[in-house]
């Protein structure tokens, strides 16, 4: 078993790519022990990652894929009350995954997402105007976070006064890497679950036009969602609906600040925004590892065989920097073509929210680079820190400065629509 550093640590997250380059060269399919104390296999080459993401022999549901003994060795401990959260789409295999995904996929089709463009632009303009007026902000907390958080919470119908609590709860969830982390997070997770149960009950009584109300109606229409599945679905949409985009916007902005030529080019050539977002997705890989899979039989990757009953992680961040697929992978090339990155995964578990994340990024980045003149870091680059996380890669904060403008000279952002008004 090769010794692999803790890939959930903040130190690793700061620059994971030298390690992944070494693994691709020396041990592209490697068995290690992760911070949770459980063994796991890491798959790091692009071809193997792409294969793993589509292989039906790699199951998502450990209760179907593994024996009780194998689950005890492979699956991290979770408290009993947390069980509803394990019923989300990410942890399900067909046909349950297919059924659950069908309930929400229409909300995230490119056509439906495009209907949100005006609302996303209004939110972005308001956030940018506030930043420009002040001249110094934490870009993560004041632009990268509130933009996707506002959009997903409005889609779900979560009251604005509850958004800060949702952010605290989701921070706790994505920071869990060990059983100790789970124990420390239990009060927050319990409060999150209790809040969701109350929210669902209010929708059952009063109805509504939001996505949560639609899911409740689907549950009542034909038992297509169990209570646990309904809770898990809402939790997943809240977390996955904003966390990846937060990291993409913040880490992508840092990547542009690290490369002044790329920053200046995007400022001068706004038509580059679509390929630029794809390149920033590849370059920063906000989801560093695809969520775990379990081998339901022996699975070969080249000459290496992963035995049945093993936990496996496809390392998206490594695949996206594979020199066999991407020329000069450590270089930010805004017009890279082709760009077959795997930032949103692949196969049946391809990210449902990819169209929404793309829309938000394609609106946010031009506003950041064009409407915040003189954008620069407000702290030494070496002082920036990264969140420890098993799956995600994201900054703790991103303090920046720009040329401040008098309040009267900042363009007034469009007034957001009234609650319940059409988007």
If you had to describe this structure to a student in words, what would you say it looks like?
The protein is of the alpha+beta class. The protein has one domain (10-409): Cytochrome P450 (Cytochrome p450, Orthogonal Bundle), CATH 1.10.630. Helix content is 49%, strand content 8%. It has 19 helices and 10 strands. The chain has helices at 10-14, 17-26, 46-54, 62-65, 68-74, 96-104, 110-114, 117-134, 139-144, 146-156, 163-174, 179-206, 211-222, 227-240, 243-258, 260-268, 273-284, 316-319, 354-371; strands at residues 29-33, 39-43, 58-59, 136-138, 293-295, 299-301, 304-306, 311-314, 376-377, 399-401. The strands form 3 sheets. It has a 5-stranded mixed beta sheet. A 3-stranded antiparallel beta sheet has the order 4-10-9. Strands 6-7 form a two-stranded antiparallel sheet. A hairpin with a 2-residue loop joins strand 6 (299-301) and strand 7. Helix 8 (117-134) packs parallel to helix 19, helix 15 (243-258) packs parallel to helix 19 and helix 17 packs across helix 19 (354-371). The protein starts with 9 loop residues before the first helix and ends in a 22-residue tail after the last strand. Mean pLDDT is 89; it is low at 412-423.
What's the SSE pattern? Answer: HHEEHEHHHHHEHHHHHHHHHEEEEHHEE
The main sheet comes to: 5 strands, mixed
- Assign a percent range to the helix content: 40-55%
The class by helix and strand makeup works out as alpha+beta
Q: Which ranges are low-confidence, i.e. pLDDT below 50, for 5 or more consecutive residues?
A: 412-423
CATH topology: Cytochrome p450
Tell the overall outline.
globular
Termini Cα gap: 54 Å
- Strand count: 10
Look at the structure and give the CATH class. Mainly Alpha
- Mean pLDDT over the full residue set: 89
Beta content comes to: 5-15%
- Order of strands, main sheet, comes to 1-2-8-5-3
Number of helices: 19
Q: How many domains would you count in the coordinates?
A: 1
CATH superfamily: Cytochrome P450
């Amino acid at each position: 078993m090769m010794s692999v550093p803790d890939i959930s640590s903040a130190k690793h997250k700061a620059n994971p790519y030298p390690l992944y380059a070494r693994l691709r060269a020396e041990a592209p399919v490697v068995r290690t022990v992760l911070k949770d104390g459980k063994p796991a296999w890491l798959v790091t080459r692009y071809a193997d990652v792409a294969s793993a993401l589509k292989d039906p022999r790699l199951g998502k549901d450990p209760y179907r894929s593994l024996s009780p003994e194998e689950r005890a060795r492979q699956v991290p401990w979770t408290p009993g009350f947390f069980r509803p959260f394990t019923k989300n789409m990410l942890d399900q295999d067909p046909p349950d995954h297919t059924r659950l995904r069908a309930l929400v996929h229409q909300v995230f089709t490119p056509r439906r997402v495009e209907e949100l463009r005006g609302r996303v632009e209004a939110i972005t303009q308001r956030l940018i105007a506030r930043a420009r007026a002040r001249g110094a902000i934490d870009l993560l907390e004041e632009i990268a976070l509130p933009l996707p958080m506002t959009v997903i919470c409005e889609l779900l119908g979560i009251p604005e006064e509850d958004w800060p609590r949702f952010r605290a709860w989701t921070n706790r969830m994505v920071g869990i890497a060990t059983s100790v982390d789970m124990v420390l997070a239990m009060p927050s997770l319990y409060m999150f679950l209790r809040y969701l149960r109350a929210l669902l009950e209010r929708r059952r009584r009063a109805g509504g036009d939001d996505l949560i109300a639609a899911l409740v109606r689907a549950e009542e229409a034909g038992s297509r969602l169990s209570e646990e599945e309904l809770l898990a679905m809402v939790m997943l949409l809240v977390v996955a609906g904003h966390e990846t985009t937060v990291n993409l916007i913040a880490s992508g902005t840092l990547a542009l600040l690290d490369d002044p030529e790329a920053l200046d080019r995007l400022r001068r050539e706004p038509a580059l925004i679509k390929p630029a977002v794809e390149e920033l997705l590849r370059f920063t890989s906000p989801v560093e590892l695809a969520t775990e899979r379990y081998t339901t039989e022996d699975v070969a990757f080249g000459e290496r065989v992963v035995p049945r009953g093993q936990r496996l992680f496809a390392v998206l961040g490594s695949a996206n920097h594979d020199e066999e697929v991407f020329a000069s992978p450590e270089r930010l090339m805004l017009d890279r073509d082709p760009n077959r990155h795997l930032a949103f995964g692949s196969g049946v578990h391809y990210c449902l929210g990819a169209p929404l994340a793309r829309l938000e990024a394609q609106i946010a980045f031009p506003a950041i680079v064009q409407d915040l003149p003189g954008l620069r870091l407000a702290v030494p680059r070496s002082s920036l820190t990264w969140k420890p996380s098993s799956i995600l890669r994201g900054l703790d904060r991103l303090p920046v400065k720009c040329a401040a403008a008098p309040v009267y000279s900042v363009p007034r952002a469009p007034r957001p629509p009234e609650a319940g008004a059409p988007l």
